[in-house]
Design a protein that fits this description.
Number of strands: 5
Number of domains: 1
Structural class: alpha+beta
Keywords: Transferase
CATH superfamily: Gcn5-related N-acetyltransferase (GNAT)
CATH architecture: 3-Layer(aba) Sandwich
GO molecular function: acyltransferase activity, transferring groups other than amino-acyl groups
Strand content: 15-25%
Shape: globular
Protein name: GNAT family N-acetyltransferase
Pfam families: Acetyltransf_1
Length: 132
């Protein structure tokens, strides 16, 4: 497995299969745009199959705050430590930023607590709940 922080050599075609279970999954083109416009991202790339199998991204002011909106590993690559590696690499990229936030489902809180993250209360607005 190779981990990358650049989109060099990556096209939307390399980003297929993500957003499993989403009511309205993002297209590979939208996924590419999200990565391209993120402050930071890390890709897990399977060199043998020439495809991206996992990713994490962060949005940041690069001074005090960063938000990690997404981390995902393709289903067939899960439970191999790829998500843990992606998260550790992102924390390294954000090491000089004191406030790092993310939102997650309750069942994922234990995963993030292993990295020293603390449970918090917050609010979100999700427009996709209004989609048909």
């Amino acid at each position: 497995m190779e981990y990358r922080t650049t989109l060099e050599g990556i096209s939307p075609d390399d980003l297929k299969g993500f957003f499993v279970g989403w009511k309205k999954p993002l297209t590979p083109e939208q996924h590419y745009a999200i990565l391209n416009n993120s402050s930071f991202f890390v890709l897990a790339y399977d060199k043998d199959k020439s495809k991206v199998v996992g990713f994490i991204n962060a949005l940041s002011d690069r001074v005090n705050f960063a938000f990690i909106p997404m981390i995902e590993v393709l289903p067939e690559y899960q439970h191999r430590g790829i998500g843990r590696n992606l998260f550790n690499m992102m924390l390294k990229l954000l090491e000089d930023i004191p406030c790092i936030d993310l939102t997650c489902d309750v069942e994922m809180q234990g995963f993030y607590e292993k990295f020293g993250m603390l449970k918090s209360h917050g609010m979100v607005f999700r427009k996709y709940f209004k989609q048909d």
